[in-house]
Amino acid sequence: MAQVYRGGQPYGTGRPALLTPHEVRTHEFPPRRRGVDPVEVRRFQTRLADELAALHQEIRALAQEHDRLRRALRDWQSRHARDCPPPNGGHW
Question: Is the dihedral of CA 64, 66, 72, 74 positive or negative?
Fold first, then answer.
């Protein structure tokens, strides 16, 4: 059975599913007797969705930077292990 994706993450990964900006923009609220101004609700949803989209973009950029730094560290460790012999000849 195929996994269903939400917020870019498959269900069941142990991470909470992130709301998407589209979900925020299109969410419908049930009518109430003493309702709120629908224009204000939509304005708030738009603002929230825009901030959410910016945060998702920042998370993606930080994840890419994290991967880049992890690769750079791994490369440095490999070069260091190859080029720098242990000071005691490898004996404890």
Answer: negative
SS (H, E, C) 13-77: CCCCCCCCHHHHHHCCCCCCCCCCCHHHHHHHHHHHHHHHHHHHHHHHHHHHHHHHHHHHHHHHH
CB within 8 Å of 6: residues ≥ 6 apart: 17, 18, 20
Residues 6+ apart with CB under 8 A from 53: 21
Residue listed under structure tokens 């609220």? 29
**Residue 2 confidence (pLDDT) above 50:** no
- Write out pLDDT tens, residues 14-67: 666 778 888 888 888 887 778 888 888 889 899 999 999 999 999 999 999 999
Amino acid at 61: A
Determine the Cα–Cα distance for residues 92 and 90; give it in Å rounded to an integer: 7
